[in-house]
Amino acid sequence: MNGSVLISGCSGGGKSTMLAELAARGHAVVEEPGRRIVKQEIESGGTALPWADMAAFARSAIEMAIADHKAAREQAGWTFFDRGLIDAAAALQHLTGEPVLEKLSAAHRYQPRVFLTPPWPEIYTTDPERRHGFDEAVAEYDRLVAVYPTLGYDVVMLPKIAVADRADFILDCLPRETRQQ
């Protein structure tokens, strides 16, 4: 069984908070590639930033997501991803028209059930790594909602409930047995 579980959706919809909850429960988690890239680029004076060179940023996110996905295959049990390869490939394809999404998605599959956080204006905030506004976040969300089913994923919308209840919801939606090595 594929133990790589993707949590995607609207920027500012509670994904990182959800991953922290799942980590506190003992699950392996992978931080969003985009946030790690922004931190690295700012620290090094790089330009692969979404507000400076979105295509370079998306390409870096694709590389990081592929490495994350490969590393997760070595883990027993569930590994939960805050975004991942499909989000980065969808962004690059939307931006440049490069037909990368289907090829990359076919080569690096996640668990068939993908969880999406819906737009949630009441909790949306910007920060040093998230400079875009809510409208841009919703536009990206709309693209992802359309993309995932075309790639054969079963999309499950996360309810707007407390983080512990959201974590329970996700775990209840996954197959009971976890992947064994």
From TrEMBL:
List, alphabetically, the InterPro entries matched. Answer: NadR/Ttd14_AAA_dom (IPR038727), P-loop_NTPase (IPR027417)
Superkingdom of the organism of origin: Bacteria
Q: Which positions fall inside the NadR/Ttd14 AAA domain?
A: 5-166
Name of the protein described by the UniProt record: ATPase
